[in-house]
Amino acid sequence: MAPPVGVRRRSTLSGTRTATPVERAVGKLKQFRAVATRYDKRAFMYRATVDVATIKIWLRDITQHP
Predict the structure, then answer these.
(1) Of 18-27, 40-49, 50-59, the least confident
(2) Does residue 34 contact residue 40 with C-beta atoms inside 8 Å?
(3) Taking CA 47 as the corner, what is the angle to CA 58 and CA 24, rounded to the nearest 5 degrees?
C-alpha cells in the first residue's frame, strides 16, 4: 500500500542519509530565484541563467576555499 500523498517514506538505510554532490548542486542552484521559479520563457535563456548561476557558485566556492 502506498503512503498518503505528501507523506515521505522513511529510508531503510541505517543512520542519516548524506546528500550526493548532484543534490547539493541542485540545492545551491535553487537559491537563485530566477532558476527556482524559471522566469525565462525560452529554453536557451533559462540555460543561460543556470550557467550564470553555476559560474557565480563556482567562483564563490573558489574564493572561499583557496
Answers:
(1) 18-27
(2) yes
(3) 40
